[in-house]
């Protein structure tokens, strides 16, 4: 049996032992039978390298299944309620109530995930949220009183931040490798865009071809099943870190300013969706709007291959500039030009979100990582709600057709101004 030979070097003992064989002087003859013993070269593609880590494919698959319903529940609820009560205003109010409730409870759910672990909290929280969606479905099917719809939609607010939990796993697995973590965050952002691009389409097809409740029912099954698969991957779950600080991550220097930037950025997304739907106003509105998500998805994947991460201020400046394209395209009255403008404008979204979420990861203590990322999502949702309301008002009171597209441009400029004025990200720890 060969014996290890630990040799000393100027830096100390060698880490890897060298083995002597019985014929140390003999030159080993090459043999094809030993090719399988040679270490395999790492894939050149940075995304493929991510999934060479054990367990990453399984938790990613489960998380994607769980994340797709996030783009399905809202559209499914609107179609289901509107079909039963013949009121889109009621449907919008009920879904807005669920979103508002989720914005309040999400940071608390994330705090529990940080304290007790992903599997221990995410599974019961998801089961409770799915139960709320099913109760809402039954209430709508039975034409329950309106107050019952608002009460039951609040039960869905325990849904955990599946994207944040996935990003937390990558942060744990790739700790110390900022380039790989940048690629992982880019992948996650592209996955977000893909799910929110496909989710509404899948929901609309199910509700229109089967029955109005089909979208909600399918989304509930996918959500619970995906979280169960994700939570079962215990080998990649981040360990519970000891709490090193008390209170909210908002107390960390720079986090408050960063949340303000996220709030303004969310207003870009919310207003752009509403003003585009109002401007196009037809069956092609959905596909035209989806081009923005497609541009973001493609840009996110390209950004993940970059060796360096841009500053948040640079990304926001690019977003502010590109938001002029939909405005100019809408001014021409050409739907084709607007589609192209949205596609290019969307390319600033993913790099901005990847860079912003990277800052959240670096600023937030490890013991509060899920809570910090969920606060960022909550700020985005608040901005989306404010942007939707402002965009709706602009669409109704527009002095000229393209007026509404001034709102996302203004919101992007505000986000850039806040970032530059506060200096957020310049002194973030590496």
TrEMBL record:
<feature type="transmembrane region" description="Helical">
    <location>
        <begin position="372"/>
        <end position="394"/>
    </location>
</feature>
<feature type="transmembrane region" description="Helical">
    <location>
        <begin position="284"/>
        <end position="303"/>
    </location>
</feature>
<feature type="region of interest" description="Disordered">
    <location>
        <begin position="1"/>
        <end position="41"/>
    </location>
</feature>
<keyword id="KW-0472">Membrane</keyword>
<feature type="transmembrane region" description="Helical">
    <location>
        <begin position="217"/>
        <end position="233"/>
    </location>
</feature>
<keyword id="KW-1133">Transmembrane helix</keyword>
<feature type="transmembrane region" description="Helical">
    <location>
        <begin position="144"/>
        <end position="163"/>
    </location>
</feature>
<protein>
    <submittedName>
        <fullName>MFS transporter</fullName>
    </submittedName>
</protein>
<feature type="transmembrane region" description="Helical">
    <location>
        <begin position="121"/>
        <end position="138"/>
    </location>
</feature>
<feature type="transmembrane region" description="Helical">
    <location>
        <begin position="335"/>
        <end position="360"/>
    </location>
</feature>
<dbReference type="Pfam" id="PF07690">
    <property type="entry name" value="MFS_1"/>
</dbReference>
<feature type="transmembrane region" description="Helical">
    <location>
        <begin position="254"/>
        <end position="272"/>
    </location>
</feature>
<feature type="transmembrane region" description="Helical">
    <location>
        <begin position="89"/>
        <end position="109"/>
    </location>
</feature>
<dbReference type="InterPro" id="IPR036259">
    <property type="entry name" value="MFS_trans_sf"/>
</dbReference>
<feature type="transmembrane region" description="Helical">
    <location>
        <begin position="400"/>
        <end position="424"/>
    </location>
</feature>
<feature type="transmembrane region" description="Helical">
    <location>
        <begin position="64"/>
        <end position="83"/>
    </location>
</feature>
<dbReference type="InterPro" id="IPR011701">
    <property type="entry name" value="MFS"/>
</dbReference>
<keyword id="KW-0812">Transmembrane</keyword>
